[in-house]
Description:
By secondary structure, the protein is α+β, with helices and mostly antiparallel strands. 16% of the residues lie in helices and 38% in strands. The chain contains three helices and ten strands; from the N terminus they run βββββββαβββαα. The strands form two sheets. Strands 4, 5, 6, 7, 8, 9 and 10 form a seven-stranded mixed β-sheet that branches. Strands 1-3-2 form a three-stranded antiparallel β-sheet, with no helix packed on it. Strand 8 and strand 9 (120-129) form a beta hairpin.
Amino acid sequence: MEVAYAASGPVRPSAGSVSISPPFDSLRRWDLIMIHVMNSTNETLKGHGIVAVIRRKDCYLMIRRAEEIRAGGMWCFVGGAIEDGETQEQALVREVREEVGISVRPICKAWECPSIHRDWLLHLWEAEPLSFEITMNPREVADAKWLTPQEILLLPRLIPSVIDFFKAKSLL
């Protein structure tokens, strides 16, 4: 799967491709208006994932995934698979509660992108934390920290879409 970014205006999809028009967040309009995901090998997506972008003042909640799971040992936002029959908002609340034990309120969908292996479509949502005491699920999370975007850039083994998200939102 190939990802192309458009600075502004519509991108005309080619045959067999998917156009995604992510909305802007409530705080700032971003430069990348549309992401065009082209499926050049006619692969089918294995599924859809939810990603929680949780901000507390100037910091974002980041996790290091447990070694035994997909993308093990990598730093990323909290997230996981959207289960059958679940809305994106329901999946967001469930995944955050399962992985770090806090309650959140979904605010708005902020972005979409392919997963690191390009076989899942990830839906990134901004979420407001309603509680702050982190209780990590050791089967899924090895570490969790509230970090500024500048601190996040210094993390080893950072999932590249985190950097793409911050750049798209003009937070770097």
